[in-house]
Amino acid sequence: MIDPNIRQRPAYRKGLWFRNMVILLGVVALIAIFLNQFDLNSTGRLVVDPVLSAPIGERDVTVASHKSGHTIVIDAGHGGKDPGANGASGAEEKDYTLALAKKVYALLQQDPKFDPYMTRNDDTFLDLDERSAYSNQLEADAFLSIHGNTYTNPNISGTETYYDSLISIPLAETIHSKLIEATGFPDRGVKQEQWRVLVGSERPSILLEVGFMTNPQEEAKMLDNARQDRVAQAIVDGLKQYFEGK
Ligand SMILES: [Zn+2]
């Protein structure tokens, strides 16, 4: 029961309160949208990244003409309606590839020798030709498509690196040897395969199958954050070695 001595708020006051809340929520939403356009770089400084914030077809690729370092395109496999492999624990390949791709991108951003790009930096669907076309437009010095493997037999494990064009062999071999060290997974070798994302690329391009998501032990290691950091660092170390040797 309401104490009749307690004064009720006048109706117009309630209306005012409601209007203020709507304005406040609107401002909070705008700030959230605004902050979403930025990435924190290595120094903690806010930087605008116009390349990443636009849909792939609308991005400014002219930046490649005044680049200062090696242009690296990191492609997180799958995305959006295409989940890729289904891991032993139910994890989806598209989330794994994005997590690892972001780590590689962040490390490359810290090094002035590299100009890194990502084909996607969120859960977006891109077809395979869009990915390789983006790499071609940017005249990438290296294109890396990141994947997790899948097989019907959960005991199958190991790391594989693929190339299509012969110009990509040195890149594939250098990254693969670093990857094997970092994962500790069985070495399934560097192989040639006409994966569509590689066939469409005119640039040195490789596809990394870091490990088998269908193998429970391997999947657990692939999803481990600290191990992902090590794998990302290995990919970057491989890129450094590759360009030093050129
Ligand atoms: Zn895949």
From TrEMBL:
A UniProt-annotated Pfam family: Amidase_3
One Gene Ontology molecular-function label: N-acetylmuramoyl-L-alanine amidase activity
Transmembrane residue ranges: 16-35
CDD domains per UniProt: MurNAc-LAA
Coiled-coil ranges per UniProt: none
MurNAc-LAA domain mapped to chain residues: 132-240
One of the GO BP terms on file: peptidoglycan catabolic process
The protein, known as: N-acetylmuramoyl-L-alanine amidase
Species in which this protein is naturally found: Paenibacillus paeoniae
